[in-house]
Design brief:
51 helices, six-stranded mixed beta sheet, 33 strands, single chain, alpha/beta, 50% helix
């Protein structure tokens, strides 16, 4: 950013330059004049604008010209990229505005006026966390709640706010965490979802909130505190997508939409000083990408790209260094001035330079408006009220501090009896002040103006209308048309898929593997009766089970179609492909509709388990529609699978004729019997659709008789599939606009129920809380650190692989941390601060690290990670735990084993007290946005590490980011106490004020590229630091914050560095550098000569033995599952719905041949268990692994313990699910009630349950993500279902597959064991329609003609003595069904034992994968 944007520039002192000791003050004066349009003066203006833009621009231009004359020596700036020119934002914005005016583009100047604004949200009483039993209660009560919803408990969040923000004004919103700042920002930006009620009036240039929401929703935006992005998109792709949907229809003459997007994207990247990140992934906590500060700037850029006229920014400088934060504030100031935007900004730890950018400030205390007026008069207002001035505090911190009973101080002779102290009193005092009256008058005048003079409102409406692209309705809130949005989303999805190389390769590999398996199993199906059944199996599987894209489906279709030898004609193949793809589209739209309507994954899984099972059972294959239960047959006609399967069958069988041969001829010449090999007059073809004496069965007749299908309905069925697709897509579009699950949900905190122990401890915490706040009690940190060892690092270099080569992130870094010192690690965003901490903490898993790390003069060993505490920037925790449980878990596993559990529990209470989390001790951690707030999560991160009592080092990565000024000061003050107790601490910190900065002993300052700029003492009033910089030409002004000044001096923001020489080179040539290297040598030599008296336990990788780790981790995992009621209940629900639907479909089966087949189908349904469990268990395991990866870096417990705890903790629910599944499927289907057989089946199904869970965990353990794990599931299920002996009988299976896949398949043991147990000894009696009727030769009886055949094949004759219409039933006993399949009743216990071995094998796979596969990269 040019000098025109910067109000504070370090003074340059050089012999050949003109000294400018007053440049900084001149700049401040000029900018103060720019922002000095205060309340009383503004009332005199008749314009809707609160800032004189022309005057501001003129003064900024003059300032820029003056600064250009300052001899800031030009040269190489290491903080800027090669070839990167200095960006003058003011000049650019002025030119842009001028061009827009010349082009006749209308302006969007919208002021915001609010009256009696009140907000009510969820609350009023403590909400207890949900557990497993609550899921049952919610399920039973859901219909009642739907029909008679109860009123939720409410609590007021904001009380009767009044105010006005004119176009061109910036409002700073201040308050302690929980005061209501975020609520105000959301509501003022018209984001009202998630609140139970919003009262009062909010108008935007005279337009009501309702109309604004309906017609102009894109003009009022809220930028949330958390940075939520698609991690695998680059920064440039992220911005391009945002711009592609917000590119206006009317642009500058000759400017294309592509040129517009490129220009704006380049401008935003330059403005925020992140052009170097354009081709870098955005990343997140689990995907390596840009730094935290750079990611925050991406969020800012996205909102700027939307070009809203009213914007709310919630703590938008979190994670930014002081210089970058000020640059952001100044950029926002310029954009506000030039384009007359209206901005509301909530900031924590705002420096004075940032505060000065704002016109007005709103101070909130517990939902009460205690000040709203000119920013420059706020401090004086509170001083006059009776509060003591604290000159060393920034104005923002001071204003917030006056609302904190524990921080504020009263003026001499004043106290809370004569100074408004409570939120209500402060609110009343403000209502009685002149500032309130001035604001009320100003609001009344503005409201009257915009209602009488509609020019501004009409210009706004015209500007919005002009910005709309072609095809966008006038009343639509969108800038782009529906088609444009679809194309943009499609493009983004294609980019995501293209960049997901592993997922793309895996999905295509899975498609090919599945096609080859099915194609070779049904290789070259003959056009005979024996090929009819397998053809049907082949076709129905493809219509329902292949969720691939068009190219994958085409590849799949080619392989399977020609391998299976289906009808060889172009028309048949492309019809086949068209039906497959259309069925896929319809089913995809169906499942997406489920995803939209369901509030979470668990609810969707429950609904899907019912609907998918109904689709499979009533798809027309397992049961022909004419054989279905009458009262359930309607499901068939509403089933998309039915139409896809029937169309495929009609396409194939209308083109083939089937030859009746082999076992389909009765009697037939098997085993050398003397019967005709071809169909004769005394034989019958048992294939459905055959005609007497005709060996050829037309395929059309077969599907008509067997399934009720007609070829002339093929295109009708295709049309119905298309209608299903259109209907589901329309439903999805309708629902996605109206169903907002979680999009605007209010963040609530839930609490665990107290037990006897926690009740006593909570009471004690509350008593001590008062004493600590009053200063009557102090923490005792003596004897906290037993061994005090120095930590040194020398010549550290770190390179990472990037496309086209490598990138060096750390370059020759030297340093040390002594026990008892507090060292600050600072630098611009992206300078490598977190990278250095990761390397020093031995957390890096990719790239190459060179150099030397030593503790007490010795190389770091396996105990190093356990002995250090690392508070990471990302606050990742086990979300089901409470605060107290999280701290105890850390203390139990990381503190030395000789410390008793009681002592650890007591120490945890001390940490809770220390971090001021007394009121949250039993609060569930939850997820970001649904649990602890940002500030509380940051405290928890610090508390978890402190609970471990780290003996070596304490690393903290931005511990104060996201905290208010007082909380940040409390954290640093506590770190100071830890250092005094002997702790060695290295801490990155952003935006420290002078009061905060002076608590640190030493500073390690980095610039981009991982180069050291300064490492040394800070000194009182930063004397050592400022002296060092002054020695090399950068003199810090007396009124500047040294922490901000040094970043400006090295060019850490968007401005130029002071001087023409690289500050890293200056440091390398300095005496400080040489002294630091000598000090490193000295520290190591002294430490080597010191005996620290360590035991063998201190040298171990883990603090606790294996069995203790397993006990503690398993206990937490069991509690975690108990607190995931939806996960457990969804599994149980699926285990209820599938057997109930199956039992109703095959209710109380009889002894007919068809019933025997149906019994086997019921058994086959049991193979669906893994499909149900895989989809539910894999995400749970991978989510738990993410938490483990953080905890593993601290060496809390081993990977083997993690894997075993997951396996053990799933067991209780597996037992319950197994019992329920058995009871609901076994007895309703009419299976054997004999105890031995029912017991065996129960045991086998229980083993199947365990097998399914352990298989899911094994797959998840080998998968880097849930999406990749899901890609393997179809292959697993198709293999398991195809080669178990049901889908294709073993005699019909190709020898290649039969020789190894059949015995290797675990489900062969399940199918074999259940089939022989159920059918052994079962008497079979043919129904009337099941007899194979043939005519014996003249003069022969049925027995004399076919007796030999019956003896060889089994079965029985209806009337052996009959001389005509011989009826043959192919089964006498159930054994006749399974013996030809190779199953044996005598082998069932052997099969069960083998099945158990598979369970054990899955467990071993999970443990091995957990031990050796590390999917986290950092």
């Amino acid at each position: 950013m040019s000098e025109g944007v910067i109000s504070r520039t370090p003074t340059v002192v050089d012999g050949g330059d003109i000294p400018l000791p007053v440049v900084s003050s001149q700049m401040e004066q000029l900018e103060n004049e720019k922002l000095s349009v205060e309340g009383d003066e503004k009332l005199k203006e008749n314009s809707a604008s609160g800032v004189n833009v022309a005057r501001a621009e003129e003064q900024f231009a003059e300032l820029r010209r003056e600064l250009s004359r300052v001899s800031t020596r030009k040269g190489t700036d290491p903080e800027k990229q090669d070839g990167e020119e200095e960006f003058d934002l003011l000049e650019y914005m002025r030119e842009t505005s001028k061009l827009q005016d010349e082009a006749g583009l209308k302006h969007k100047h919208v002021g915001v006026a609010w009256t009696d604004l009140s907000v009510h949200g969820h609350g009023g009483k403590k909400i207890r966390l949900r557990t497993y039993p609550d899921a049952f209660k919610d399920f039973v009560m859901s219909p009642i709640r739907l029909l008679a919803p109860s009123k939720p408990d409410t609590k007021p969040i904001l009380h009767n706010f009044h105010g006005l923000a004119k176009p061109g004004e910036m409002v700073l919103v201040l308050g302690r965490p929980g005061s209501g700042c975020s609520t105000f920002l959301k509501v003022i930006a018209n984001q009202r979802e998630g609140f139970l009620g919003v009262g009062g009036d909010v108008e935007y240039a005279g337009i009501g909130a309702d109309v604004m929401k309906k017609r102009f929703a894109g003009e009022t935006l809220y930028n949330q505190e958390d940075d939520v992005h698609i991690a695998t998109l680059t920064v440039a792709q992220t911005l391009d997508f945002a711009l592609s949907t917000k590119t206006p229809g009317k642009r500058l003459p000759g400017q294309s939409s592509v040129a517009f997007r490129k220009t704006v994207a380049d401008t935003l990247l330059k403005m925020l000083n992140i052009p170097h990140t354009a081709q870098t992934l955005v990343g997140d906590a689990f995907v390596r990408g840009v730094s935290g500060g750079e990611r925050k700037r991406v969020s800012i850029a996205e909102q700027f790209a939307a070009s809203a006229c009213v914007s709310s920014w919630d703590n938008s400088t979190r994670g930014l260094d002081a210089s970058t934060a000020l640059d952001y504030a100044k950029s926002l100031r310029i954009l506000t001035d030039v384009f007359q935007m209206t901005n509301f900004v909530s900031l924590y730890q705002a420096g004075e330079g940032i505060y000065e950018q704002f016109d007005k400030v709103l101070v909130i205390d517990s939902g009460r408006q205690v000040y709203f007026g000119p920013a420059k008069k706020a401090r004086k207002y509170l001083l006059e009220m009776g509060f003591r001035d604290l000159p060393r505090q920034t104005t923002a911190d001071y204003l917030t501090g006056c609302t904190d009973p524990n921080e504020r101080q009263f003026a001499d002779g004043r106290d809370e009896t004569n100074v408004p102290s409570t939120p209500e009193q402060l609110e009343q005092a403000f209502r009685a002040s002149k500032f309130y009256q001035v604001m009320a008058d100003e609001r009344e005048q503005y409201t009257k103006l915009v209602k009488e003079d509609l020019r501004h409102q009409e210009e706004f409406r015209t500007a919005v209308l002009e910005s709309k692209r072609k095809g966008v309705p006038k009343k639509s809130p969108y800038t782009s048309s529906f088609l444009t949005q679809v194309l943009a989303l499609t493009k983004r999805q294609l980019i995501l898929k293209r960049q997901d190389h592993f997922g793309l390769t895996t999905s295509f590999g899975t498609a090919i593997a599945v096609a080859i398996i099915i194609g070779t199993v049904y290789f070259k199906q003959p056009e005979t009766a024996s090929g009819a059944f397998t053809r049907a199996v082949c076709l129905q599987g493809m219509a329902a089970d292949i969720p691939f894209t068009a190219s994958q489906i085409m590849l799949f279709s080619i392989i399977i179609y020609f391998l299976a030898g289906l009808a060889l004609s172009a028309g048949a193949f492309f019809t086949f492909f068209l039906i497959i793809y259309t069925t896929f589209l319809a089913m995809s739209a169906f499942f997406r509709s489920i995803g939209v309507v369901c509030q979470n994954y668990d609810v969707a899984s429950r609904l899907a388990s019912v609907l998918v099972m109904l689709m499979l059972l009533y798809g027309g294959y397992l049961i022909p529609h004419f054989a279905m239960q009458d009262w359930l047959g309607w499901i068939y006609w509403l089933n998309p699978i039915n139409y896809g399967f029937s169309a495929l069958m009609e396409n194939e069988f209308s083109r083939v004729n089937l030859l009746c041969d082999g076992t389909f001829i009765t009697p037939s010449p098997i085993a050398g019997l003397d019967y005709p090999a071809t169909l004769g007059p005394n034989q019958v073809c048992t294939l459905q659709g055959s005609s007497p004496g005709n060996p050829i069965v037309p395929g059309v007749d077969y599907i008509r008789a067997a399934f009720g299908y007609r070829p002339d309905e093929l295109w009708r069925n295709f049309g119905i599939l298309c209608l299903f697709y259109i209907a589901f897509q329309a439903l999805q579009c309708f629902l996605i606009e109206r169903v907002k699950h979680g999009a605007h949900a209010a963040a609530i905190t839930v609490f665990a129920d107290e037990n006897a122990d926690t009740k006593v401890r909570n009471a004690r915490l509350q008593v001590r809380k008062i004493a600590f706040r009053k200063g009557e009690a102090k923490q005792d940190l003596e004897d906290l650190i037993k061994t005090k060892k120095p930590f040194t690092w020398s010549d550290l270099n770190y390179t990472v692989p990037v496309p086209g080569g490598t990138r060096q992130l750390l370059n020759g870094v030297y340093g040390y941390v002594k026990p008892g010192t507090l060292t600050a690690l600072m630098g611009s965003s992206g300078a490598g601060k977190t990278t250095l901490l990761d390397v020093l903490a031995n957390r890096k898993s990719i790239g190459v690290v060179t150099g030397e790390l030593r503790v007490a003069g010795r190389p770091i060993d396996k105990a190093f990670q356990r002995g250090t505490a690392y508070c990471e920037q990302q606050d990742r925790h086990e979300w089901t735990s409470t605060v107290r449980e999280a701290l105890r878990f850390s203390a139990y596993l990381r503190q030395p084993r000789e410390i008793s559990k009681a002592e650890k529990d007591d120490y945890v209470e001390e940490i809770i007290q220390l971090l001021e989390m007394e009121d949250l001790a039993d609060a569930q951690v939850g997820m970001p946005g649904a649990g602890l707030g940002v500030e509380a999560r940051k405290r928890l991160t610090i508390a978890v590490e402190l609970a471990a009592k780290p003996q070596l080092l304490l690393f903290l990565d931005e511990p104060t980011s996201g905290l208010d000024g007082q909380s940040a000061y409390n954290i640093v003050r506590f770190l100071r106490k830890l250092a005094a107790a002997g702790q060695a601490i290295l801490c990155t910190i952003h935006q420290p004020n002078a009061l905060l900065f002076e608590n640190f002993d030493r500073l390690l300052l980095l610039q981009r590229g991982g180069n050291i700029v300064y490492f040394g003492d800070i000194g009182k009033d930063s004397h050592h630091l400022t002296s060092y910089f002054a020695r090399y030409g950068a003199v810090c002004p007396g009124n500047a914050n040294p922490a901000e000044f040094m970043l400006d001096a090295i060019g850490a923001g968007s401005q130029k560095q002071v001087g023409d020489k690289d500050w890293a080179d200056i440091y390398r040539e300095s005496p400080e550098f040489e002294e630091n290297k000598r000090e490193i040598i000295r520290l190591n030599e002294e430490a080597l000569a010191t005996d620290y008296g360590e035991s063998e336990d201190d040298a171990g990788e883990y603090a606790q033995p294996f069995l203790y780790q397993l006990s503690v981790v398993t206990h937490r995992t069991l509690i975690s599952f108990w607190r995931m009621p939806d996960y457990l209940f969804t599994r149980l629900f699926s285990h209820c719905s599938v057997p109930v639907l199956t039992g109703l479909t095959f209710l109380m089966l009889g002894n007919a041949v068809q019933d025997v087949q149906y019994r086997v189908f019921v058994i086959f349904v049991c193979t669906i268990l893994p499909a149900l469990i895989l989809a539910q268990t894999e995400p749970a395991y991978i989510a738990a692994r993410m938490t483990f990866q953080r905890e593993d870096s601290s060496k809390m417990y081993s990977s083997v313990v993690f894997a075993l705890s997951q396996i053990i903790s799933e067991t209780p629910n597996s037992l319950i699910c197994g019992v329920v599944f058995f009871l609901l499927i076994y007895y309703p289907a009419g299976f054997s009630t004999e105890t031995s057989r029912a017991g065996y089946t129960f045991f086998l199904l229980l083993i199947t349950e365990f097998y399914s869970v352990t298989l899911a965990q094994a797959v998840a353990a080998f998968s880097p993500s849930v999406l990749v794990a899901a890609l393997f599931n179809p292959l697993i299920m198709i293999y398991s279902g195809t080669f178990c002996g049901v889908a294709i009988p073993p005699p019909n299976m190709p020898h290649f597959w039969r020789s190894w896949s059949l015995p290797l398949n675990p489900f062969t043991r399940l199918i074999s064991g259940m089939t022989v147990t159920e059918l052994h000894g079962l008497v079979v009696r043919c129904a009337e329609s099941e007899w194979a009727v043939f005519q014996p030769p003249n003069g022969s009886t049925c027995q004399s003609w076919s007796g030999a055949f019956v003896d060889a094949m089994g079965g029985y004759l209806r009337d052996p003595s009959a001389t005509s219409d011989c009826g043959y039933c192919k089964y006498t006993m159930g054994d006749d069904f399974y013996v030809p399949l190779g199953f044996s009743f005598d082998d069932r216990w052997r099969d069960l034992g083998i099945f158990i071995c598979y369970v054990v094998f899955n467990c071993l796979l999970t443990i091995v994968a957990a031990r050796f596969l590390k999917f986290s990269s950092r």
